[in-house]
Amino acid sequence: MGREQWKAALRHPVGAVAAALLVALALLAVVAPMLWGDAAEETDPAALSQGSTSEHLLGTDALGRDILLRVLVATRYSLGLALLATAICVVIGVLLGVLPAVLGRRAGRLVTAAVNLAVAFPGLLLALFFAVIFGVGARGAVLAIGLAGAPSFARLVQTNVAAVAGRDYVAAARVAGVGRFRLIARHLLPNIGEPLVVNATVLAGGALLAFAGLSFLGLGVQPPAYDWGRLLGEGLDRIYINPAAALAPGVAVVVAGLAFTLLGESIAQVVGVRAVRRRRVPAAEPAPLVAAEPAAAAVLAADDLRVGFPAPGGGWTHPVDGVGLTVRRGETVGIVGESGSGKSLTALAVAQLVPDAAQVTAGRLEVAGVAPLGRADAEVRELLGTKVAMVFQDPMTSFNPSMRVGRQLAEVTRVHERQGKRAALARAVDRLRTVRVPAPERRAHQYPHEFSGGMRQRAMIAMGLMSTPELIIADEPTTALDVTVQRQVLRLLKDVQAETGAAVVLISHDIAVVAQLCERVVVMYAGRVVEELPVDRLGAAAHPYTRALLASVPDLATDRDRPLATIPGRPPDPSDRPEGCAFAPRCEFADDACRMRPSLSAVAADQRAACWHPRTRPLDLTLDAVTGGQA
Amino acid sequence: MRELSFEGTTVRFGTGRSALTAVDGVDLVVPQGQVVGLVGESGSGKSTLAKAAVGLAPTSGGEIRLDGVPLRSRRDRRKLQLVFQDPHASLDPRMTIGESIAEALPGRRRHAARSAEVARLLELVGLDPARARSLPSGMSGGQRQRVALARALAAEPEVVLADEITSALDVSVQGSVLNLVRDLQRELGLTILFISHNLSVVRYVSDVIAVMYLGRIVEAGPADAVLSAPKHPYTRTLLDAAPAFGVALDDPVPADDARLDTEAPSPHDPPQGCRFHRRCPIGPLTRPERTICAETDPQPGAADRPHRAACHFAAEILEVPAR
Ligand SMILES: Nc1ncnc2c1ncn2[C@@H]1O[C@H](COP(=O)(O)OP(=O)(O)O)[C@@H](O)[C@H]1O
Ligand code: SF4
Ligand code: SF4
Ligand SMILES: [Mg+2]
Asked: Under an 8 A CB cutoff, do A169 and B318 touch?
């Protein structure tokens, strides 16, 4: 947990209050016995068992000692014992927790089983059991509470260790010859520190309460020593005479316990999902429902499309920063670019699927004749639901894992077209057959995890086909697949496009994949389109970035004796883009002119590039050399 | 640098119905100072084979040797270093990259000597030695992969196993990592087992190419020979499917035949006879008379065929019927 996160936990209002309380309690624990230690022992025979008086604000006990002072002084002992018990619990828990990682497989399993057995035992019962074994008294109680809590802490450590132990960097360290103990000290424990700290804090709160309980029952602290629990017990005997005598230690216990627990919870919140504060999107005038002049030929028309996120330091960053994109009906367009260039976000903006925190603006955005910006989500969903289909890289995350594939497909038409259950299911099977899923009737009854990667991707496409989409957006649909399966899926997309007439936008980092399927290629860099050209003109690419991309991919004809072309440096961070041409720092042709931002302009028929010095020399794309080995 | 050899290496996972043989009697030699490229679809057992070599996967049969000496102890295995696919997962987020690299240095050294060695290694992989003090979180994938390579080299390995080390990288970065691998190999004479599902990438760095299918090596031979005249139909299918400029999706290749299975068989229940027979473009589904494919496992005679191909019809592989 970084310093930032600790700070964030303290900035959290609940966390701040809890932390302040704990600091105050700690101060009290240090100071109170020094200041009032003796006064709290002083008996006042003249004031036995009194209620509240001006001299004794909360009254006195049976020996005439001041209750307020005794509660304050007891802070040290109560907290100290609770922390001691927590420490025992944590130490034993961590030892038991990492033991399976140190021991061999078999002995490790034995420890795990033993811990699980102990966890199943009710904690308080365990504490009582230990209290009896260790004898009545503070020492026994500390041991009892510490030992009783250890199993569940051990299990926490075990689960966390097991999760981290599966990570690559731990395997890498093992391969590098790092010994077991060093592995635990350097790789395992530091990386599970956060949940352990959180739980130890909560545990301390619990220990405090448990201790009060034991002392109250007379199993904990024995006279003449006293803690809050014992004061509570004494006070309760006389609750009708002086309620404050019972209330004061009770309140102390509850407040201290809560402080620990709340601090733990607020740390946990900060460490876990960081709540994204949603900023109000500046309200835009809703455009007319159907654009005045629907560009009949275009299924997607976007001008100056921008997607912004709140920047950490205030203001906005724009990962998509003025994209212009037109897709004609039935066209296949590929979008290529490095990761972070804004490809996926552009697609999500078009399909109105951007994350909540994002803000989408555009000079013009029309999707299948609908202008979605400025409309309510539900309305857009209704309008676009049947017209735009999305296919993602990992279809596993797009399917509900607990629902049969057929039913999930059927759901789409039932929602959008209000079809009957049976008809919808029949259509689902039919669409699965369309995408050439073998034995579609049987497959429709299976769950997503029973599908292989390629089959899931087909099912995803089938889901898009449940209605008749005008635009299919496929975002890296084959990146996780093998070449043979990739080819099948790409061919399927092509067939679907030919049969339904839908336009296809294929997003990929691999320009060779795009070149296989698409008629036109759009190259993105740093949130903008830098070149647009027909696929058969790739060899005449004009933008230095496009050319570098083409040259850096090895194919089956690449000269093995020459180093691969590379692009020096890395793409600029969206929050820190250069003023002029964003590619300038990596471009070998950059000069003073490039300090101004170039806009897309025609370099040939159907080809536009955003560059002040477009290249004209044809590239050597070894176009036909690859077919050498083929029949 | 010395020779790594797998002899009948077998790795099994699970028991009962969930049991599967991820690596099934693999024989493979990685000769000294050469790069052997291992290709195959995901799940074919490539990673498991590499993990078995470094002791991260349990072998249940066969022997893995370094210069003929079986690898038994952790100490022996340190001479093999594995570089992982995902550079975002393979570096401890809490350790500076200098610490990560230093951790792999063998033997005890003084602080100054360690720092000097770390600086040398960073320089070797093309990173600024001043980076030693930074955490991996600020680095790009390509830079992290360079750190991972430096860490592997720190252990002074005899053999480096690189498992899909460019798959998680952008194409523009992939090029520079591949160049680095090639340069390091030439400079240091490294012996490398280079695993990738991408034939073009493997071709670029490898001297020898081995093709894996469902836990077995189905073809192995000099890179040029395997790629220009494949002897196993599966290799041929991979070559046909690799995307390349100027090759349209519509140009049919033999593996597009609609009679063939589109899905790989389950590794829990590999097919009888030739494991590839339900997807083979020249197998029994397109040529019913080839019943031998579904009945007799072609693996046993593989050593005598060209490229050690596990195919009864390895000799006539190029006569693919046009569709
Ligand atoms: N720890 C494991 N337990 C069970 N099965 C595994 C384990 N690791 C890999 N497998 C299985 O072994 C087979 C081979 O996997 P792998 O070696 O990762 O293939 P590749 O590297 O070629 O993609 C796959 O079917 C995979 O699911
Ligand atoms: S505008 Fe200048 S810096 Fe940008 S790509 Fe063209 S030549 Fe390079
Ligand atoms: S043995 Fe038969 S099925 Fe197997 S690869 Fe050879 S031809 Fe194909
Ligand atoms: Mg793998």
From this structure: no
Ligand 1 atom at minimum distance from B49 CA:
17
- Per domain, the residue ranges of chain A are 3-36+56-270
Report the amino acid identity of residue A94. V
Domains delineated in chain B? 4-216 (3.40.50.300), 230-316 (no CATH)
Residues in chain B closer than 8 A to A516 (CB atoms)? 243, 247-249
**DSSP code of A220?**
S
Residues B272-306: b if buried by 16+ CB within 10 A, e if exposed: ebbbbbbbbbbbbbbeeebeebeeebbbeebeebe
Q: What is the pLDDT of residues A502-535, one digit of tens each?
A: 999 999 988 888 988 999 999 999 999 999 999 9
Low-confidence ranges of chain B (pLDDT < 50): 319-323
* Tokens found for residue A532: 């647009």
Contacts of A556 in chain B (CB under 8 A): 199-200, 203, 227, 239, 242, 244
pLDDT recorded at residue B101 = 94
Round to whole Å and give the CA distance between A321 and A207.
55
The two beta strands, A298-310 and A316-328, are antiparallel
CA nearest to A192 within chain B: B94
Neighbour count for residue B132 (Cβ, 10 Å): 21
Please say whether the beta carbons of B282 and B317 come within 8 A. yes
For chain A, the distance separating the N- and C-terminal CA atoms, rounded to the nearest angstrom, is: 60
Structure confidence at residue A311 (pLDDT)? 80
User: Which of B89, B239, B247 is closest, CB to CB, to A168?
Assistant: B89
Closest listed ligand to the CA of B284: 3
Please work out, in degrees rounded to the nearest 5, the angle formed at the alpha carbon of residue A384 by the alpha carbons of A378 and A386. Answer: 115
Report CA(B43)–ligand 1 centroid distance (Å).
5
The pLDDT value given to residue A415: 67
Find where tokens 């926490």 sit. Answer: A156
Q: What is the predicted pLDDT for the residue at B191?
A: 94
Out of A240-244, A472-476, A483-487, which region has the weakest mean confidence (pLDDT)? A240-244
Task: For residues B268 and B270, give the distance between their C-alpha atoms in angstroms, rounded to a whole number.
Answer: 6
3-state SS assignment for residue B66: strand
Average pLDDT, chain A: 81
Query: Which member of A177, A453, A628 has the closest CB to residue B78?
Result: A177
Ligand nearest the Cα of residue B42 is: 1
The verdict on a CB contact (< 8 Å) between A169 and B56 is: no
Burial of B208 per CB tally in 10 Å (0-12, 13-18, 19+): buried
Report yes or no for ipTM above 0.95: no
- Taking the C-alpha atoms of residue A425 and residue A77, their distance in angstroms, rounded to an integer, is 69
Burial of A314 (0-12, 13-18, 19+ CB in 10 A): exposed
Share of chain A above pLDDT 90, in %: 16
- Interchain contact A278–B (C-beta under 8 A): no
pLDDT tens digits for range A285-330 = 444 444 444 456 889 999 999 999 888 777 888 999 999 999 999 9
C-alpha distances out from residue A244 to A50, A218, B181, Å: 11, 21, 77
Q: Quick check: B89 and A167 CB within 8 A?
A: yes
Closest CA to B177 of B159, B161, B195, B165: B165
- The answer to whether A626 contacts B264, with C-beta atoms less than 8 Å apart, is no
In the structure encoding, which two tokens stand for residue B199, read together? 């034939």
| CATH architecture label of A3-36+56-270 | Orthogonal Bundle (1.10)
Q: Tell me whether A276 touches chain B (CB under 8 Å).
A: no
- C-alpha A520 to ligand 2 mean position (Å): 22
* Inter-chain touch A555–B200, beta carbons under 8 Å: yes
**pLDDT tier at A31, thresholds 50, 70, 90:** confident
Least distant ligand from the CA of B285 = 3
Determine the pLDDT at residue B294.
93
Q: Does residue A593 carry a pLDDT above 90?
A: yes
